[in-house]
Amino acid sequence: MAHDDSLEILVERNDAPVSDADRAKLLENPGFGNLFTDHMAVIRYTEGQGWHDAKITARAPIPMDPASSVLHYAQEIFEGMKAYRLADGTTALFRPEQNARRFQSSAQRMAMPELPESVFLKSVEALVDIDRDWFPSAEGGSLYLRPFMFASEVFLGVRPAKEYLYMVIASPVGAYFKAGASAITIWVSKDYTRAAPGGTGAAKCGGNYAASLVAQAEAIDQNCDQVVFLDAAEQRWVEELGGMNLFFVMDDGRLITPPLTGTILPGITRESIMTLAREEGLVVSEEPYSIDQWRTDAASGKLRETFACGTAAVVTAVGTVRSEDDEFTIGGGGPGQLTEKLRMRLVDIQRGLAEDKHGWVKRLF
Ligand SMILES: *Cc1c(COP(=O)(O)O)cnc(C)c1O
Question: Is the CB of 311 within 6 Å of ligand 1?
Fold first, then answer.
């Protein structure tokens, strides 16, 4: 639709927002993903008409017909991004245009309409603006933003839907992993894989998460924090965690991360870390890394550190890797020096404490 780019977003203020006192109390300890702001963004899509009825409105349940096609065939995609309050009081997003573009490629893979980049950005910015009083007071807190889109057409036939709902909700968040967790333990899934060649591994869709949950439950049973998936074809190559990309710090100055072959989600944190690591003089190599190599290199000391990264948890050290057969520890089992350095470099840029050479920080107000 030619007019999508100029779509106006109507703003309807919530006339019964959370009181200042209640909000202040809630924001003291927001946790992760439990608390939501007063508003949401909504835009509808109808085939033949394009995107329409864009608005910011009071956050509320959405009426849904039981035959809405997302409930049956899972045509759904999402994004995850954060708005930060910078040291100087400015509010900013981190590389939001990357989220907008990834949302479009996820839509393509799931046979859904693409939301124009400018509309995606406008909707997110308008929500942050109206809910600007919802930033957590605690250090390290941010406003987590969840744009998503699903097939809302009331139809049980199997084909791409003709109607969609795009929405953005916001959740004030603290740290993703429990405080004090300095390095995580991960479980190697042997029975389950996350994504196969030709599948949807590179799309940010709810279905990938649905498929990963039984493995994640197994990880929790095994006293692990997260699950690591191996490739579906050979059960040999390390791919990623359920929602985070992986990096391996070698003793020869190389930083290895699995290549984007279509089964791995192209993380924006991953890409940012690769850039920062190169600036630190590391040789970044996107190459397949096997579970056997991982074990061998951890034992020999050739592997110094392993870390996972993503918007929610930023950069998290992996201390221990556990499987049905064995368990191994990386380095001293805690966060390594380079993990810590890269994490700080990224966080400092995100928080406006370090120079933003690459124009990653988009200041809003
Ligand atoms: C969102 C996500 C990531 C991390 O992506 P970021 O853009 O860095 O937040 C990694 N893996 C999966 C499966 C994801 O869904």
Answer: yes
- Ligand 1 pocket check for 316: Cβ under 6 Å: no
Pinpoint the alpha helices (H) of the chain. Answer: 20-28, 70-73, 96-109, 117-130, 206-221, 268-279, 291-300, 337-350
pLDDT per position as a tens digit, 289-313:
999 999 999 999 999 999 999 998 8
Give the model's pLDDT for residue 70. Answer: 98
Strands (E), the chain: 10-11, 39-46, 50-58, 76-78, 81-85, 91-94, 142-151, 163-173, 183-188, 226-230, 238-241, 245-250, 254-257, 283-286, 303-310, 314-322, 327-329, 361-363
Predicted pLDDT of residue 138:
78
Ligand 1: residue of 204, 205, 208 to mutate (most ligand atoms within 8 A of CB) is 204
Q: Nearest Cα to 58, choosing from 123, 13, 10, 18?
A: 13
The pLDDT tens digits of the residues spanning 330-345 come to 999 999 999 999 999 9
pTM of the predicted model as reported, rounded to 2 decimal places: 0.96
The answer, yes or no, to whether any atom of ligand 1 lies below 6 A from the CB of 269, is yes
CB 103, CB 268: distance < 8 Å: no
